[in-house]
From TrEMBL:
Alphabetical list of PANTHER family matching this protein: MAGNESIUM-DEPENDENT PHOSPHATASE 1 (PTHR17901:SF14), MAGNESIUM-DEPENDENT PHOSPHATASE 1 MDP1 (PTHR17901)
NCBIfam families: HAD-SF-IIIC (TIGR01681), MDP-1 (TIGR01685)
MF GO annotations: acid phosphatase activity
Organism of this sequence: Naganishia liquefaciens
Listed name of the protein: Magnesium-dependent phosphatase-1
Pfam families cross-referenced by the UniProt entry: Acid_PPase
Annotated InterPro entries: HAD-like_sf, HAD_sf, HAD_SF_ppase_IIIC, MDP-1_euk, MDP_1_eu_arc
Amino acid sequence: MSPSALSSSESAGHMPKLVCFDLDYTLWDLWIDTHITPPIRRKGDAVNSLQDRHGTELGFYAQVPEILSELKRRDIHVAAASRTHAPDLAREALGLLLVPGQGKDDLVKAVTFFQTMEIYPGSKLRHFKSIHKKTGIAYSEMLFFDDEARNKEVESLGVTMCLVRNGVDRKVFERGLAEWRKRNGK
Ligand SMILES: [Mg+2]
């Protein structure tokens, strides 16, 4: 895609083939296995908002839906890698959460943005080896957003990890892209 075809907010320049996101404190501001008590539910067609048994709200950080949408539109593979101890609940949340889709007034389930999901406890080296095996995409073509410094170990594979402090937003997304371009000489 030529830069002129991008809308003003979209990132220009080389893009990785795959962007992977951690879930807790990267896409939403809680630990799903600690702070959320099932059952979770959505009130009607509420956008980017679920509630648990006690009324605790679960939703993506505000700019996450538009970033996911941009990646989909640009045909970039989107993955999730989480080491939560509540994998079923995390999957259920992504399946229930409604976010804006590609068309005007379209709402889609958040899960539809994720082509690959690796959600289980353990080292994220395992998550990324599995993503690589499933997609055939080179590690050097992967950009990963995560809030835990220990997960930087995936860089030993060739993945670029962008450390997130207060969740993913447009600024963090651009910083991650810049780090990936610099690391790969793009
Ligand atoms: Mg996290």
